[in-house]
Structure formats: C-alpha cells, structure tokens
Amino acid sequence: MSDAERLLDVDDLRVSFRTEEGVVHAVDGVSFHVDRGEVLAIVGESGSGKTVTGMSLMGLNRSPNATFRGRATLKGRELLSASDAELRRVRGGEIAMIFQDPMTALNPVQRIGDQIVEQIRAHEPLSKAQALDRSVELMERVGVPRAAERLRSYPHEFSGGMRQRVMIAMALSCSPELLIADEPTTALDVTIQAQILRELDQLRRETQAGVILVTHDLGVVAEIADRIAVMYGGRIVEQGTLDELFYDPQHPYTWGLLGSITRVDRDRPGRLPAIAGLPPSLLAPPSGCHFRPRCPHEFDKCVQRPELEVRDPAQPDHCDRCWLAVEDKRRLRVVDGEIGLAAKQGKVVA
C-alpha cells in the first residue's frame, strides 16, 4: 500500500521495566505497520509481549520504572513521546482498545450506561440523551439483551462474557481509526464470538479502520486477519500474510503453534500436541535465538541473534528469525504428514 494509506508505523519499539529482580525486557525491537482497513494479528503465548506492545501504543503502561525506545506514529503523530494530555485526546476517538480483563477495566462504582456515555461525549458534541441512544444501539450490536434496561446495571451484575461485550461496545462507540483488540473473544461462547468478529470486520469495512488483533487463538486469526506477526520472548519471530503463515510457515515456533491446534476432521490424538518447555524469562533471556532452548532443530549458529529478515526472495513480505535454510525448514516442519514441531530430544531448559 502507498504511504497515503498507512495508518500506524511502529519502528524498533523497545519497552523495559525495572523491578527488584532486575530489568525485564518486555518488548525487544518490534517493528510493524497497519494500513487503513487492515487487520494485523499479533499472536503468541502469554508473556511474549503482545499486550505490552498494545498498551505502549495507548500510553497506558507509563510509570517511573518503565523505559520506552523507538518510534510509533499514528497518521504521522508520535505516540511514545506524546504528553498525557495529547494522548487523552487521541484515546477513544482515534485509537481505542478492547481490554482483556473487563472487570478491572470497567469502573465498578459507575453504571455501564454512564461509562459509555462519558466516552462518547468526551469526543463528540452530543447531548446525554443522544449518547444514551447510541449506547443502546451499541449494546444491541454486540448481543446484550434488554440493552436499554441493562445500561443501568453495574459491572458486577454482568457475567464475564457480558462484561466483555460491554468493553467491545465502548471501544466501538466513537468509530476509532485504529482499534487494538486484546483477546476480545476469550470469555465468549463460539456463537457470540462469531458475532463479535463480524462486528470488527464490519467496522473496518465501513470506516476503513485499522485493527490490531492480539490473540493466541489461531482460529480467530484465520477468520479475520490480513497479516500476522508471531511474537516470542518480546520479539517478532515471523511476519507475513495470512496465507504465508498458515501454508508456508518459516519459524519453528510458528510450526509449534499450528501443530497445537486440535483438528476436528481427524481422530482424537492420545496426547494433545504441545510445545515442550516454557517461554523464556525476560529478566535473563537466552542468548541468540530466544526459542533455541525449546527448539528440536537447534544447531551451533543459533547462539547468534537472528534478525527479522526476508529469507525467501520469492516472498518479499514474509520475514522470520531462523538460521535454518528455507529448504530445510520446509522439510523439517512436516510431522506425521502435517505442519508441526518435532519432539525435543533430551531435557528442555526453560
């Protein structure tokens, strides 16, 4: 896409936090972009840096012990160095976020309707009655029954799934240009999950909004994403289009994620597939490739840090951080006739 269609640019984002045990390098040199009308999915295990990346763009994890480096520009406006007052004007109207835990994101002592109305009126010159009408419409769109009545309820009177729908309604209330959805369908049943995904897809089609979908659910990714960035240990280890990541994955960690999906068109396995070991400690990550201690294909060169680069000239938009040759990757990723990660031999060091 041309630069005129570029909505968000993130370049070499680094986020670290000083703790009593040392410095946690939560995000380590992450770069990506989002164009208008595009859905970028950021996937990976818990602790890979996905949520910290989204919170940093919103300026919600600023604290005396946090350090930010790099650049993040929304329509040319720098976000990382913006003042708190500038970010308050941007949040909600231009960039919004669906939080993973609605119980801690919603104000427990304010009615749901008051919270949605407050956000709408902070960005648009509407009367309270007009804002309430829009709130009812939004609640109905995300599947809340008796929406007009439930606006008078408090967060604790909703189930977890209903609170998640309220968070989605709030995020959509001002039709933001960039929506960061952090596990937006985690607490929802599959029927409502499909409905929410349709709403997100409709939002980006109607308003040409960009969407960053933070998730570990590759089924959700397959439904809506245009491009995928796979994060591990604070870094993006592979990035490409939906088809490239699903049909020609180049990083062993991505193979493990794809191989961990249970197939409904196959006989149930005796043991569910999983990636051996645990994600690395970001206080003292392993040298070189962060996935090295869990990778069955580790070799001598893996102690050197691989950069996120194009490895196959035939796929100029497909990048990964793995020293294996492309031909070897395509051979090694096939396990029992499917894409997956072979078992790690010997002891796995977490």
Q: Can you put this structure into words, describing what you see?
A:
- This protein has 350 residues and is of the alpha/beta class.
- 31% of the residues lie in helices and 23% in strands.
- It has twelve helices and 14 strands.
- It has helices at 50-58, 84-90, 102-105, 112-123, 128-141, 147-150, 160-172, 190-207, 218-224, 242-247, 252-259, 326-332, and strands at 6-19, 22-35, 39-43, 66-74, 77-78, 95-98, 178-182, 210-215, 227-232, 235-241, 309-310, 319-320, 334-335, 338-339.
- The strands form three sheets. Strands 6-7-8-3-9-10-12-11 form an eight-stranded mixed β-sheet, with helices on both faces. It has a four-stranded antiparallel β-sheet with strand order 2-1-4-5, with helices on one face. Strands 13-14 form a two-stranded antiparallel ribbon.
- It is globular.
Secondary structure elements and pairings:
Elements: E1 6-19, E2 22-35, E3 39-43, H1 50-58, E4 66-74, E5 77-78, H2 84-90, E6 95-98, H3 102-105, H4 112-123, H5 128-141, H6 147-150, H7 160-172, E7 178-182, H8 190-207, E8 210-215, H9 218-224, E9 227-232, E10 235-241, H10 242-247, H11 252-259, E11 309-310, E12 319-320, H12 326-332, E13 334-335, E14 338-339
Parallel strand pairs: 3-8, 3-9, 6-7, 7-8
Antiparallel strand pairs: 1-2, 1-4, 4-5, 9-10, 10-12, 11-12, 13-14
Helix pairs in contact: 4-5, 5-7
Short description:
This is Peptide/nickel transport system ATP-binding protein/oligopeptide transport system ATP-binding protein. This protein is α/β, with parallel strands linked by helices. The chain has helices at residues 50-58, 84-90, 102-105, 112-123, 128-141, 147-150, 160-172, 190-207, 218-224, 242-247, 252-259, 326-332; strands spanning 6-19, 22-35, 39-43, 66-74, 77-78, 95-98, 178-182, 210-215, 227-232, 235-241, 309-310, 319-320, 334-335, 338-339.
